[in-house]
Specification:
Six copies of one chain form a homohexamer. Chain A is of the alpha+beta class. Chain A has two helices and five strands. A five-stranded mixed beta sheet of chain A has the order 3-1-2-4-5. Chain A starts with a strand and ends with a strand.
Chain lengths: 132, 132, 132, 132, 132, 132
């Protein structure tokens, strides 16, 4: 199996609801380093599993829609805790939508899965993996 | 599938028995950077797969029981080579015990697996992955 | 010359005032990875320039007073843009106060300088260096 | 499951054929940071899944045969785009050959798989995973 | 003293002339991770030493003029060994020209120095530091 | 000013004498990631400040004389606490001896300084800087 990963980052504010979050219930923020992996069983005639340049562009479009924002005010997350896990799934699902919409080109048609990892600090990160 | 990873480290002395270890048969030491991943299929109502704060605390308790020690003198490792692989398994098993004992809280009940990676240097690391 | 550096991190929300900041004028956030270096010309009788354990504790106290907060609401920063440069200086000045108050112990009496670096993302960081 | 990973690097020149590669169609180059993981279900009597020293030597032999070269001139890659994916597969296949030829020793007999990751920059990498 | 650093990268092919370079006399390549630091004694009214966004743009313009090229064919380097040291100086000098041309804006007028570090691999890098 | 840095690592056991060291008074160990920087004002005719290949070899010789050892048993450190600061100075002094003995070649004659950084964990490191 092959995979190609591209990295970007985003800087957001948010708060989390629930006693389990302790001081993170206060409005605070994070730089999320975002790694998006695209998986496939085979290479196309160009020798790639996905166009790495397009993958980077699409990931940047996804992070650009989230960065420099207070996620507490974003309608997309109304009633949802924007935990690292939830944001990893959000990024993965938006990338999956982009693949299905053809934004990653022909080579991406045979992709079998996506994994997104969000690093919230040097000592903590979360991932979400899904099929395509 | 979701996973949450927390990182800690420990600084130990040890020696390894067996010709295969060459100069590592001498008493020497290592800083192990320890990454512990907790995996689960679903998020709970708070939007998490595991309480990342508790996960960090439990991992720290496990590394604190090993750090600043000569593992050659630890009864827990009598007759065992404390290779990076063995130590990765030890940490993973102790974390699994903590999960089963309820130390990671209710959210951890549905965890399906643990993976522990020990980095012994910038150019070498080992992992152990197990079900819960 | 010797230096000892310890690393911690903090997760804050803030906004910046001024056209130069573009989208960062909106409320957003950052994980700051904070590196604090303590410099001295000589080692004490224990062979250290500063007690690295105490240095880590004092740095943690400084970051703990800032993390999980919206800096726009902190009286300490009223009327001040909390840029990465300003925050690096704030951390450095608070560490200098701790040194002068004796919180880093006797070994720290001969320290000559402090440098603090705040990494706001994998591709941007800022430092402030001052004498003691 | 256990895995042991060793890291090396290589510095190559190459060009890529196909419109999809944009400016990378020009002759350019890359430092590839190469991570090779060896997987197995069990530890041998020494407590290892593979001799990490030998694994590092074999990986170095593989990267040494590629580094400081223009891959456009290498017969092994005639008619092949030397994409990051293709190079990851090449390294993995050469490591698999070495395992089968006994170059990693007895402990390596029970290895079940290999994964090779090539980092081409801090923001892009590709992997290839295969059975043994 | 303050400094702000931005990071970018470039992927080039080149060869080096001179016995001292051993196998690097052959045409090969490198991913250079490029860190550019801008230094100043004071913050402006916005609380910055330089506009970090503009600094990143200017650095990207400089790396974009070098990346995806065979430096052996670039007129700018005719008769010059494009060692890591030389390339660090080239990047620093081009950034200094940009500062002097006003491309980094008013805040950059009081900058006192630039340092550029080029990482050629995880185990080797070179820097060049100059006044402004 | 130019500098060239090479990285290596060593894995040692040791204990530290003095209440200030707390649990580090017990026999324990560390992986030290060692960065050695060589500084000079000018490039030679080859365009280098020092032969990076030779610098790596000399650094490796220095770390090879320390790695896989219990420093408590090394005559060179009798009566000396092998703190990170002390070890950084030891490595720097041995590198300076090598420069003076001509082991880094002619280009190294004009080097003006050396700085050595030892990383003992991801959150702590120490440096020693000296003239040549």
């Amino acid at each position: 199996m092959f995979s190609v990963t591209v990295r970007d980052h985003m800087m957001i504010a948010h708060s989390l609801r629930g006693d389990v979050f302790g001081p993170a219930q206060r409005l605070h923020g994070a730089t999320y380093v975002v790694d998006a992996s695209f998986r496939g069983e085979q290479l196309d005639d160009d020798g790639i599993v996905v166009d790495i340049g397009r993958a980077a562009e699409v990931l940047h479009r996804v992070t650009a829609a989230l960065t420099y924002r207070n996620l507490d005010d974003e309608p997309a997350f109304a009633g949802t805790n924007t935990t690292t896990e939830v944001l990893a799934r959000t990024v993965a699902d938006r990338l999956a939508d982009a693949v299905h919409a053809g934004e990653l080109g022909d080579a991406a048609r045979d992709l079998t899965g996506i994994e997104v990892t969000l690093h919230e600090s040097p000592v903590a990160w979360a991932s979400y993996e899904r099929a395509l």
